[in-house]
Design brief:
It is a single chain. Helices cover 58% and strands 4% of the residues. By secondary structure, the chain is mainly alpha-helical. It has a two-stranded antiparallel sheet with strand order 1-2. The radius of gyration is 16 Å and the shape is elongated. The chain starts with 8 loop residues before the first strand and ends with a helix.
């Protein structure tokens, strides 16, 4: 059975914030790309996301490399939000 690699990636409003994700899952491409950027090999990433196949990991990485600017910007937005929330939490805990 042949699988169209393009059918493995989808966007749906309201699911993972409308960001691209692996079809049939709620795993955003940015999550796979982040592990890859942290130095993990595809064979290691598939162990982190046990319900995914190696083919899904490679499809996500192919999408990432084709749309790297978009995915890197998504990762940067999420990291900035995390840092902002962490700083706010630290300020709140100092005042209590």
């Amino acid at each position: 059975m042949n699988t169209n690699i393009g059918s493995m990636i989808t966007y749906t409003a309201g699911i993972v914030g409308g960001r691209p994700y692996l079809n049939g899952t709620r795993v955003p491409i940015s999550a796979i790309a982040l592990s890859y950027k942290q130095g993990y090999l595809p064979e290691e990433i598939v162990q982190q996301f046990e319900r995914l196949s190696i083919a899904q990991i490679y499809a996500a990485l192919a999408y990432y490399h084709t749309n790297q600017v978009e995915i890197d910007a998504d990762i940067a937005r999420k990291e900035a939000l995390y840092e902002k929330l962490a700083a706010e939490q630290l300020q709140t805990s100092k005042h209590t």
